[in-house]
Amino acid sequence: MREACFITFRDDMSTFQVSISSTYPGTGYWTQSNNQGTSMKTIVSNFIVANAFACALTLFSQNIEAAGFRQLIVNDSGHKDLTVGLWYPSKQPPASEANTEFGLAVALDAPIASTNRGLVLISHGFGGWYAGHADTAAALADAGFIVAAPSHSGNTFRDMSSTIDQWAVDRPRHLSRVLDHVLRDAELAAHLDPEKIAIYGFSAGGFTALGLIGGVPDLTHAQQICAEQPQEFVCAEGMIKEMVKADMQELPRGTWGADPRFKAAIISAPGLGFTYTKAALNNVDAAVQLWSGELDKRVPTQTNAAVLAQRLPKTPETHWIDKANHFAFLTVPCREAFKQDDPEEYEIICSDADGFDRFEFHTEMHRYMVRFLEANLGIDN
Predict the structure, then answer these.
(1) For 343, which of 40, 277, 281, 320 is 20 to 30 Å away at the CA?
(2) Residue range 59-68: average pLDDT?
(3) Alpha carbons 110 and 119: distance in angstroms, whole number
(4) Domain locations in the chain as residue ranges
(5) Is 118 exposed, middle or buried (0-12, 13-18, 19+ CB in 10 A)?
(6) Predicted local confidence at residue 33, as pLDDT
(7) 127, 349 contact by CB (below 8 A)
(8) Higher pLDDT, 7 or 258
(9) Which tens digit of pLDDT belongs to each residue from 88-124?
């Protein structure tokens, strides 16, 4: 894995981040916890001028390569086709300015360069889209992975036509269909090892990821939790009631999407985490890395991520992030165009607690993700 040095520049209009391959680690939010689930508070390191200068020299002395990007259309038989973003290593220089609808500069339709043979699929949150985690996808591509992220039809910001009893079972099927497509594609398959496949899921995408690795929610248990803690966001929103009303507790286990091809899972702000008992997670064999913001009010750490950490069969790697809210795992939406178009929604998604910089946090989060994936997929760095 190549270490990266990151410098963040700001003005009154926008935030830019430059990533440089370097031996100088960037400064910022270094967050970690041990494998027993004991969290460490965010450490904010002092900015060292020498490191910044070294990074600047690197910027002008190395050939900077952009992540390659292309869009795929994947057939989901009997359902709407899936629009999929594909990121991958590329040797092509980046465009001089953003050339995508998600506001990042990529090497559009560039040839695929050498990979580490790993594949990561990404499942976005409720009402998101395939590019919601484009910065994370690009960081993984820079580390050698191919990354595929579908827009979950029926549960995107453009199309919210699916009810919870539909999208809860559609989402894992989407990921399996995308995986089928990628592994059948001769060009892509030549760069991949089918034993080195992982999933990253955020919020509702975390629920999706748990289904893919064998988790089956216990809705009878979830009803009891909602009766005891009606303030829990998904309880207050009536989601559990809707699932029970649709008799989802009667669904066969396979309906929830278990796919043994996924060997590792990274899950942030895991939606509906409290619906899983130990028995509901018995079949999970994949390695798991959990992330949660300590200021998350939609998916509180103690009733979701911490519950999963205690109940998963294998002790997961856990990261509870000081001063982070639910949307700290997103940076792509936080651009000036969104702020001007919908300032109220921008405030909800992009505001952070004093002292927390989500761009710097993403720098460190990506490092931990890459190290976890390399270790648990058997990838040599």
Answers:
(1) 320
(2) 56
(3) 18
(4) 65-377
(5) buried
(6) 52
(7) no
(8) 258
(9) 999 998 889 999 999 999 999 999 999 999 999 999 9
Residues written for the chain: 381
User: For residue 56, what are the CA distances in angstroms to 7, 9, 94, 135?
Assistant: 9, 12, 17, 21
Q: Measuring CA to CA, how many Å separate 295 from each of 30, 265, 266, 328?
A: 17, 23, 20, 10
Q: Looking at the predicted structure, is the pLDDT value of residue 262 above 80?
A: yes
Task: Sheet with 119-123: list strands edge to edge.
Answer: 107-108, 68-74, 82-88, 146-150, 119-123, 197-202, 264-268, 287-293, 317-321
C-alpha 259/C-alpha 211 separation (Å) is 8
In one-letter notation, the amino acid at residue 203 is S
Q: How far apart are the first and last CA of the chain?
A: 5
* pLDDT given for residue 94 in this prediction: 81
- How many Å apart are CA 155 and CA 124, to the nearest integer? 10
66 confidence band (pLDDT: 50, 70, 90): confident
Domain topology for 65-377: Rossmann fold (3.40.50)
Q: In which band, very low, low, confident or very high, does the pLDDT at 173 lie, cut at 50, 70 and 90?
A: very high
Asked if 6 and 18 touch (Cβ cutoff 8 Å), the reply is: yes
d(CA 113, CA 266): 25
Amino acid, single-letter form, for residue 209: A
Residue 36 CB neighbour total at 10 angstroms = 8
Residue given tokens 């976890």 in the structure block: 372
